[in-house]
């Protein structure tokens, strides 16, 4: 367990050239005054603000014009943290080890290493577990005058990136119930549970698919061997291919015969029926078709005759007729063959389609079988992963159970808080059964400070009882007597704070400590502020001017 305490704080106003250098001791430190408005709260706010925790200053305090330098001791190591606006420098003894303007990415991890302590919380937006900013490291160690006495652990600002129930769970780190590895284990367990739910849905989906596929397969006849079916299909396919070729060739013969027949018949008709009806003044002979009236000259008529090489019209007509008869016979034979081939092709195609249907039936069944095998494999893998996740979750739960028992810690905390409230003379029967670590109890009026203090002290007492190895930090308490009119009550409050010997340092701000110092038996360093609104002084700036200038230049430069 490491112990952290403040050695000093230096606050410098870079515009007014005023500063405050204040040293602290290990153990009890009391910052006091006779009057208010002397800067006690501003001095205490600066402590954890310099270390990266955000606080709300009084409007008259311009934190943006000021340089803050806190010197802390962590066991035997000395560190200095310098802050200007949102920029930080960290020194280990006199060695600069970090300059950054990122609290989340750089300052927090470095402080986590220095303190050997950090808090990890799930981000409200991303839901990913991340290292929380310094405010959660110091949350149970600071009570702010303005916000800390109106709600438990309510002193720091800019912490809304985490849900309220998660924020207060940071107490588990200080009780050593949670560590970084613990949170990682719990985050992994939550992730595994989500995956388990996803796998369950996937398993149900695959089972529905397999049921449907098996039902479909039950409606199909047994399948033959695929190779045999493919061989049987090749035979009719080849016959059909040959028949298609023959049909094509025969169709060409028919078309050519029909064209030849038509040509011969037309030319025969020309020879038989066309005659010379007129002669146009002896210049040219014109022939007229007696059927259609089409006229053509002698040259065309002579071409027709030349096709048969005969001048005797009767003999010419006989020869043409013989050709027509021959072509007609060939055409008739070709047509018969064409019809015959088409009928044979139809039979072959019908036979092929029958075998193809059987083949497709097989392919369909084989496809269903492949699908069944594939989905069965997927389901098997899902079930194996499901079993692995369940085993992992059990191991993680077993590991988490080895940590301090939350129930035992809660019971001790309740006991301590109850006794503290009674010791402060603030007990009310309504509190019975309502004291819980993660659900602070509230009070009204003058009792509110006592109830809040009782819970803070109860936490420290519980940490001490269970020998928590978590790092201990200074307890910074501002104005715990603000609502107390009773002298006796004020004494009880101050005594309870002063007796927290399990903490490395207490820095307490209260008015009129002189009236109570005889009641406090703990060795005390008393810091008295006297001038109103003059916490920062010219003399402190002059004494530290070179150092202030050097640190300001360091943080102003990019």
Defining key terms:
558 residues, alpha/beta, 16 strands, elongated
Task: Provide structural commentary.
The chain is α/β, with parallel strands linked by helices and 558 residues long. The protein contains 14 helices and 16 strands. It has helices at 40-50, 103-115, 134-138, 164-168, 171-174, 180-218, 226-273, 298-306, 313-401, 406-423, 448-465, 487-498, 538-543, 545-556; strands spanning 4-13, 18-23, 27-33, 66-74, 77-84, 87-92, 95-100, 120-122, 129-131, 142-143, 278-279, 285-288, 295-297, 475-478, 505-511, 524-528. A hairpin with a 2-residue loop joins strand 5 and strand 6. The chain is elongated, with a radius of gyration of 52 Å. The two termini are 37 Å apart.
Cα-atom radius of gyration = 52 Å
Percent strand equals 15-25%
Number of strands: 16
Structural class: alpha/beta
| Head-to-tail CA distance between termini | 37 Å
Described by the principal axes of the CA atoms, the overall outline is elongated
Mean pLDDT: 84
List the total number of helices.
Answer: 14
Order of adjacent strands in the largest pleated sheet: 2-1-4-5-6-7
Order of helices and strands: EEEHEEEEHEEHEHHHHEEEHHHHEHEEHH
What is the helix content?
A: 40-55%
Biggest sheet, open or closed, and with what strands and sense? Answer: 6 strands, antiparallel
Q: Regions with pLDDT < 50 over 5+ consecutive residues?
A: 219-226, 275-284, 290-294
């Amino acid at each position: 367990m490491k112990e952290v305490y403040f050695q000093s704080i230096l606050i410098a106003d870079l515009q007014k050239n005023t500063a405050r250098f204040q040293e602290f001791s290990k153990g009890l430190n009391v910052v006091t005054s006779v009057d208010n408005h002397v800067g006690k709260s501003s001095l205490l706010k600066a402590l954890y603000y310099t270390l990266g925790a955000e606080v709300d200053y009084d409007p008259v305090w311009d934190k943006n014009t000021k340089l803050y330098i806190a010197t802390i001791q962590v066991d035997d190591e000395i560190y200095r943290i310098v802050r200007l606006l949102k920029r930080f420098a960290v020194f280990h003894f006199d060695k600069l080890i970090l300059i950054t303007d990122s609290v989340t990415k750089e300052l927090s991890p470095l402080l986590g290493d220095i303190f050997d302590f950090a808090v990890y919380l799930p981000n409200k937006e991303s839901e990913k577990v991340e290292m929380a900013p310094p405010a959660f490291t110091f949350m149970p160690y600071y009570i702010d005058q303005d916000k800390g006495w109106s709600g438990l652990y309510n002193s720091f600002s800019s912490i809304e990136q985490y849900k309220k129930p998660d924020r207060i769970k940071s107490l588990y780190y200080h009780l050593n119930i949670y560590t970084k590895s613990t949170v990682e284990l719990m985050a992994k367990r939550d992730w595994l549970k989500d995956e388990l739910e996803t796998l369950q849905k996937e398993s149900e989906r695959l089972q529905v698919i397999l049921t449907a596929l098996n039902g479909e397969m039950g409606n199909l006849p047994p399948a033959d061997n695929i190779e045999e079916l493919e061989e049987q299909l090749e035979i009719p396919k080849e016959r059909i291919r040959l028949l298609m070729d023959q049909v094509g060739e025969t169709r060409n013969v028919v078309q050519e015969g029909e064209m030849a027949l038509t040509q011969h018949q037309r030319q025969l008709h020309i020879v038989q029926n066309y005659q010379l009806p007129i002669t146009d003044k002896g210049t040219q002979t014109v022939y007229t078709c007696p059927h259609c009236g089409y006229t053509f000259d002698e040259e065309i008529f002579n071409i027709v005759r030349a096709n048969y090489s005969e001048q005797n019209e009767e003999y010419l007509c006989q020869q043409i007729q013989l050709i027509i008869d021959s072509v007609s016979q060939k055409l008739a034979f070709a047509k018969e063959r064409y019809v015959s081939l088409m009928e044979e092709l139809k039979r072959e195609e019908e036979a092929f389609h029958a075998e193809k249907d059987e083949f497709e039936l097989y392919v369909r069944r084989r496809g269903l079988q492949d699908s069944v095998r594939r989905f069965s494999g997927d389901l098997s893998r899902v079930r194996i992963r499901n079993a692995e996740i369940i085993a992992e979750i059990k191991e993680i739960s077993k590991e988490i159970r080895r940590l301090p028992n939350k129930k035992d810690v809660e019971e001790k905390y309740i006991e301590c808080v109850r006794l503290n409230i009674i010791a402060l003379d603030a007990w009310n029967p309504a509190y019975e059964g309502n004291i819980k670590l993660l659900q602070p109890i509230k009070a009204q009026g003058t009792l509110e400070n006592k109830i809040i203090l009782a819970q803070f002290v109860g936490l420290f007492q519980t940490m001490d009882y269970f020998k928590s190895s978590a790092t201990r930090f200074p307890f910074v308490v501002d104005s715990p007597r603000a609502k107390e009119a009773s002298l006796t009550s004020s004494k009880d409050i101050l005594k309870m704070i002063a007796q927290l010997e399990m903490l490395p340092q207490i820095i307490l701000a209260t008015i009129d400590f002189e009236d109570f110092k005889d009641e406090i038996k703990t060795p005390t360093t008393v810091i008295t502020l006297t001038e109103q609104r003059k916490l920062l002084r010219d003399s402190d700036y002059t004494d530290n001017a070179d150092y202030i200038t050097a640190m300001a230049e360091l943080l102003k430069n990019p």
